[in-house]
From TrEMBL:
This is MutT/nudix family protein. Transmembrane segments: none annotated. PANTHER family: ADP-RIBOSE PYROPHOSPHATASE YJHB-RELATED (PTHR43046:SF16), GDP-MANNOSE MANNOSYL HYDROLASE (PTHR43046). Keywords: Hydrolase. Pfam families: NUDIX. InterPro entries: Nudix_hydrolase, NUDIX_hydrolase-like_dom_sf, NUDIX_hydrolase_CS, NUDIX_hydrolase_dom. Residues 54-185 form the Nudix hydrolase domain.
Amino acid sequence: MSRRHWPSLTALAARAGKWVAALRSPVLHSDDVPPHGRQQADVPGAAARLLAGKRGPRASVVIIQDGRLLMMQRIKNGKEYYVLPGGTIKSGETPAMAAVRETREETGLNVWLAEQLDILEHKGRIEHVFLASKFRGTLRLGGPELARMSEDNQYHLLWLDYQQLQQLKLRPKNLLMYCQEWLLPPRT
């Protein structure tokens, strides 16, 4: 039986610098992401979660069509809330890679990212938000969300306009302020 070797704190700190640098990478499109978004990890998953908080950072994508925003409705243990398509950044991924991978898994859509819009925070969890310049595919729920679907744990993909979004519980909470900017014409 072999013992697992855990890196020293010094080694983890050195690797963390590389991991943080990866967060600043340019945006990309679906063809640039390897299958399942995996690459050689610069920081072990446990260390990345430790550095970024318990659940680790998240990456999401703003997809707009005909003045409506694609949102994931979540109903978990009777509580309802709405999030952008996206999910946890895996070890070895950049936020852009995770945004593209998670969107493809959850929605069936291939996205091309235009830019990173902002970095938001919700209950200590960081969320990198990207804007899709275009997308292709057939909208359908997939990935782990489809596999975990149950009466107490539901996922639904919905196109929502700004008026609808105002009535809903969004996560992160400050997302509504951005939705106004993304969906409404500028005031003159």
